[in-house]
Amino acid sequence: MLLNILIAQIPAAWDVSTNLSAFRTVLDDTRPGDLVVFPEGLLSGYGEDLSPMDTLDPGEVTEAVRRAAALAAERQVDVFVGTLLPAGSGWANAALHLAPDRDPWIYHKINLAMNERDRLQPGKTLTTTRVRGTTGAVQLCREIRFPEQWQHLASSGARFFAYLTNAANPREPRGVWRSHLISRAAENQRFVLSANIPHPDQHCPSMIVDPRGEVLAELPPGTPGLLRHTIDVAESGDWYLGQRRQDVVAVTYRGPDDPAGM
């Protein structure tokens, strides 16, 4: 099963109309059947300083999601894009899968960053979605640090990961998160499709890693750009996952209906 991937390394401004315009410009370069991956927080805006959330209009964000979904349907493409979303009386950090033929699929970030924990509501479920007959999953930014989440999603049938991040922290050593992406791909034998914002302090690349851990394509850091590559998800496998000694170490997923929680 071939998937034509387009990674968009573009900024996420604290201006919904600007972000939606940038989203539209990227989709103008797509072809029917493409799978497009955008950074974390792209539609709403996002940053280490979350104080601009205080003036973020829930109605404007909701309308931007509706218009983005309509654009994906018009172009006949699948899109993974990040946004802050209204959730109950607050906000959640979400990733959307916009497909041409159905309502948006939504993932709420489970493992919130420290700056998010007093402002955002954490998600409670790890689920997969379907892209043109292939199962995929999403993880967001800091969740690169928690390999058990990725392993659970791989065991649940995901053949690739869309990784949406907004990683521009001068305190993080360069190269560490790149190594994490390679590890998540190789240890799960899954493709990893990573999209980050362009920033002088960008410490995580926008790139595509194959199930052996080989970097197939990568964008230069710090500048906007688009990365196009075709992958064959049939290369994903379960050779290593099938060899786990679960009689010695077993990771158990607890969904929201489990009284013990996550």
Question: Order of strands in the sheet with the most strands?
Answer: 5-4-3-2-1-12
Number of strands: 12
**Strand content bin:** 25-35%
Order of helical and strand elements? EHEHEEEEEHEHEEEE
Largest sheet: 6 strands, mixed
Describe what this molecule looks like in 3D.
- By secondary structure, the protein is α/β, with parallel strands linked by helices.
- Helix content is 20%, strand content 26%.
- It is built from four helices and twelve strands; from the N terminus they run βαβαβββββαβαββββ.
- It has helices spanning 16-27, 58-75, 147-155, 176-188; strands at 2-9, 35-37, 78-87, 90-98, 105-108, 129-131, 134-140, 160-164, 191-195, 207-209, 215-218, 225-232.
- Strands 5-4-3-2-1-12 form a six-stranded mixed sheet.
- Strand 2, helix 2 (58-75) and strand 3 (78-87) form a beta-alpha-beta unit.
- Helix 1 packs parallel to helix 2.
